[in-house]
Write a structure and sequence with these properties.
The protein is of the alpha/beta class. Helix content is about 45%, strand content about 15%. The protein has 2 helices and 3 strands; from the N terminus they run E-H-E-H-E.
């Protein structure tokens, strides 16, 4: 089976590890990378800022992947 490449919009090691472990339940060969991204919302967002921040992190990460000519099968913004 080919490798499933996951890009995660956080450098938080606990979140990266947890997300990676979940995907290993479903896929044999998983690689993951956490990237520090800009959310554009307060550090402790509430209400709609939670969703806005997640969307912003995904968009930032997609742009970052394009700029560095990298690909991912799955992109996740951990909340």
């Amino acid at each position: 089976m080919s490798e499933v490449r996951i890009e995660i919009a956080t450098k938080n090691p606990s979140k990266v590890k947890a997300i990676t472990e979940v995907f290993k339940i479903y896929f044999e060969n998983v690689s993951s990378k956490g990237t520090e991204v800009i959310s554009g919302v307060p550090d402790q967002p509430i209400n709609e800022d939670v969703f806005k921040g997640a969307k912003n992190r995904i968009e930032f990460l997609k742009k970052n992947l394009e700029e560095h000519n990298r690909r991912a099968d799955i992109i996740i913004a951990a909340i």
